[in-house]
Amino acid sequence: MTAPDGSSKNLLATLRRIGALTAPYFRSEEKWTARGLLAAIVALNLGVVYMLVLNNQWYARFYDALQNKDQAVFWREIVFFCWIAAGYIAIAILKFYLTQLLQLRWRAWMTRSYLGRWMADHTFYHLELARYGHDNGRSPDNPDQRIQEDMQLFTDYTMTLSMGLLNAVVTLASFIGILWGLSGITSFTLFGSTWTIPGSMVWIALAYCAAGTIITHYIGRPLIGLNYQQQRYEADFRHHLVRVREYSEAIALDRGEQVEHEQLKLRFGSVLKNYLQLIRKQKNLVAFTASFGQASVIFAFIVQAPRFFSGAIQLGQLMQVNSAFGRVQDSLSWFVDNYDRVAVWRATADRLTSFEAAMRAHAASTSALERTPSASGAGLEAAGVGITLPDGAALIQGAALSVRPGDTVLLQGPSGSGKSTLFRALAGIWPFANGHVSMPANAMFIPQRPYVPNGPLRDALAYPRPAGDYSDAQLVQALNEAMLPDLAERLDDSDAWSQKLSGGEQQRLAIARVLLRKPAWVFADEATSALDAETEETLYHRLAAGVKAAGGAMVSIAHRASVSAFHDRRWTLVPEANGAAARYRVEAM
Known about the structure:
Distance between the termini: 46 Å
Strand content: 5-15%
Number of domains: 2
CATH topology of the largest domain: ABC transporter transmembrane region fold
CATH architecture of the largest domain: Up-down Bundle
Oligomer: single chain
Low-confidence stretches: 1-8
Helix content: 55-70%
Shape: elongated
Radius of gyration: 35 Å
Number of strands: 14
CATH superfamily of the largest domain: ABC transporter type 1, transmembrane domain
Strand order of the largest sheet: 8-11-12-6-13-14
CATH class of the largest domain: Mainly Alpha
Largest sheet: 6 strands, mixed
């Protein structure tokens, strides 16, 4: 994805995107709880502002008591301050708890929603394919990072910034009147004319903060794109670390440590390079905002000093003016103080919006391949099947295939000709296909490299069904029939089985799943490529016997000549001549 250009996207468009991400939760099945928590948080924010108003009024009385050396009023105001402080602390604690609770519930709901859609209808698989196709510019990178990190950042920053903005607006509304009344009327002579300005401190605060906001936006604008890219580079680096761990054995056997080290350094180099640019831009922003904030501490004193030293106002009123000016200035400076957080928030919202758009586009798309269940007792029928690659290149066109109960079919062809892709189309997971497939219901596909989840062995064996669907006797029998007797006593052992089991053991575990579930139709994609000839023969006999007993059939992909003996029919992918509509055609015999 191309990082968003902060100058080309106006604030209104950003708010619409954020609103589109926010609204679903507050309209969901949890809407009343969510709205109730939000209302309580808003009320508590108003309570905080009320405490600040009381505190501002206290300033005048307290400092006047000091100036007048009025001990009775001094101690009375100390007690009153303790009540204000206690109320402020209680409200702050409750506001923090409810804010965190709402954020947690919101993140949980968003995560469930996104996970449900990402895992539905093979979306997770199709979006990965799209990254390597002609529409890779629209496919989101690192969906795992978007679900895990971006949602946490989005809910956190949305609550923090929106409540901070609300607090700033209410504080401004509460204190601008106070500051107006305390400012008095300022008169000065300019070009021979006398000018009178009521509420001068309000206008000074507005001008001061407007200038600060404009300068802050100019300095901090590059942070939006840099934060967007930073999240992407961090996710790419983390993803490659996970892949090294996942393929540790293969990398070690290939002596690929140096190559992977260089790849990791390259990705981490991108992280550091972008982060260095981020630091430089943040340095400029921090330099300005820190200077802006420090100047505001004494700004009101400087402006009001002539009135104080002339005796027009007392010390208490001077302190009250300074406090009110500080509150107004803080409110008007919300954008200045939070610009870097707003930049991260906007980048996160952009990433989630693109992820949301990709999933919506996938949900709205319709496959050109029509799949229907076969009638009872019928076999597999495929007519006019065409398959293309993600880049749009035609692989197969107009294939007509048929498998009857009792058949054993071997699919052969050159490496890279699309045998596995044809299986994916028959299984209904390949999105770049057309035609019609009538598939028996009780079918199971065995990939060449099966997925073996970590955890208890019984869960890995029963996958994707719950282990509780089978008795221990059934699980043990399946392992023994798959020639894995050493694992029969380890059903409750938890381990990283994809790392502990050899390639051949993983393939036998996948076959054990088939023997456990007893499907009538089996599609095996190089399912025994890592096995010796004797084990392969034994397991193929058992698979063939199982589908025959269930009244089904078996279709296999294999390169070994020894596998041919277990099949009575052939599908062969034959290369077409240059200039043909597709690269291969399927010859069925």
